[in-house]
């Protein structure tokens, strides 16, 4: 292979796993089970607002600001419902705790097409593998539940690392865990700034998973672009 790669690091959300349904649908179903009717679209919109505000106020799940990621998420969920007109505290607390648990299981996540065979082939070819994800500490459990955990030597979340992509320090931590220099590592992800550009900034190779019809970023050459995960090995082994 032209690229002398020894380590592959992987983003998770929308690279290996995606939500089975929009957040608003999951939240609306939970509300219904408590006798509360809220429109899924209203909840999806409210979630974007609540999540955005919380991320600006307490970046990276409140790391270093005295919050646990569970408290961080419970606030986002309650705020989502409040913005949608649900204000009864007892119900809010029950729904928030239940949804926090639900998003920790395979119940709400599905594996993207091509992920299992690609990860398996990469392992068979002897690549070391790790995860680098802006996720909270539920990720390891989610990957286990979705039967992907065994492919990886390490799972590095932004909550664990104390830094979130595109901060280069999370990638440096991954390189340290993998025990390889950056030029022998490549990162695979779906976000131009957080995945592709951030990994390259620390000297790693990078591949950008980009669904057909997504906006083309001008700076990504075709040999770094994956229409699907199944294209990865052909690009690495060219």
From TrEMBL:
Transmembrane segments: none
Database matches in InterPro entries: HAD-like_hydrolase_domain, HAD-like_sf, HAD-SF_hydro_IA, HAD-SF_hydro_IA_REG-2-like, HAD-SF_hydro_IA_REG-2-like_cap, HAD_sf
Pfam families registered for this protein in UniProt: Hydrolase
Coiled-coil ranges from the UniProt annotation: none
GO cellular component, one term: nucleus
Annotated family: Belongs to the HAD-like hydrolase superfamily.
Protein name: Haloacid dehalogenase-like hydrolase domain-containing protein 3
Gene encoding the protein: Hdhd3
